[in-house]
Structure prediction request, 404 residues.
Amino acid sequence: MMTAGSRGDVAPYTGLGAGLVRAGHEVTLATHGIFEPLVAGSGVRFHPLPVDPRAELHSARGRRLHDARTGAGKLVRLASMARQVADEMTAALVEAARDGEVLLVGGSLGPLGYALADGLSVPALGLHLQPLHPTRDFPAPVLGARPLGSVGNRLSGRAVMTSVELLFFDALRSLRRHGIVTARRSRRPRPVLHGYSELVVPRPRDWPAELEVAGYWWPHRTGRLSPELEDFLAAGPPPVFVGLGSATVPDPGRVSRDIVTALRAARVRGIVQRGWAGLGARDGDDILTVDEVPHSLLFPRTAAVVHHAGAGTTGAVLRAGVPSVPVPVQFDATFWASRLTALGTAPGVLPLRRLTSTALAGAVHRAARDGSHRAAARALADRLAEEDGVAPVLAALDRLARRP
Prediction:
């Protein structure tokens, strides 16, 4: 398996990989070296890739992502940043691919992964965490959630797919020059499975048969809650968790102050996660600041979760069956935030650029106190618990093995 990006672009593959290992497969995950601890105890081997995505987001070019005001503008800046680091990862991805009998390719690495599969004459299976392929049903998630009409929706998807292909243009040209890959492409349709539930995003009606929705791939669980966190949870009513995951913000100090003010105005206890944004609060009886924590252990014990609406965190909140307040920062977060409100598990969307202590306090109060959001979240969580996202991947691998 190969993937690149933030923690949310990696963690689901650790759970999928562990499921494949239990089924008898040997699995190696190739991704950024900083994420090696995520596979501890899973049985999944690890192949490190260079580039620290956290450092990239905090670099000058990473901070410039916040200067763009539209999804398209952010995508252009992200593509420019990604092209600069693609060459650094390519050699390590080639090395990892040479050891594989089947390549399982994360969405952002699709063009390179598929070219390597063709060059090495091994089958490949796409594993996407977002619906990247064009459809008339909704616009490309990375561009936001505003409908563009059936034609506009589909064109936006094509534009994003083209942008992804251009990320590896130089890397692929170099690989062709060295005879590692060729310009020849497999004529067979690429099978792609998506690691989210149709209960959350229904499968588009115009997708071809090879595009499947498998269900969530829950991350392999590592670690436990600290004694300090356990004591805090036991000391009062369920708190509200606030964290922006792998997202960064232009002014962490201001955002942190707004969060603390909002929690106290809403009269709830709070757990604030530092995350990649560097949030923080002065700890007290009502607020605790934490670093990384297992979402699957903590979220079910909260009154609500305020989060950046990344694909991985959105899935974790839905799995926990608690209401949420989505605060989308960039890329596909607005898409996932819109799904949460449509499902009734969130009172509304509060984009980072409109976040104030007053607005956040109101949203937290509605999420934590309005029983309808909790009921919707609980009902959906019960249905998600019945799904098995690993089984469709095993079936797809079996089909690949039986191909002539």
About this structure: The longest helix spans residues 71-98. The chain has a mean pLDDT of 92. The two ends are 23 Å apart (CA to CA). Residues 30 and 47 are 4 Å apart (CA to CA).
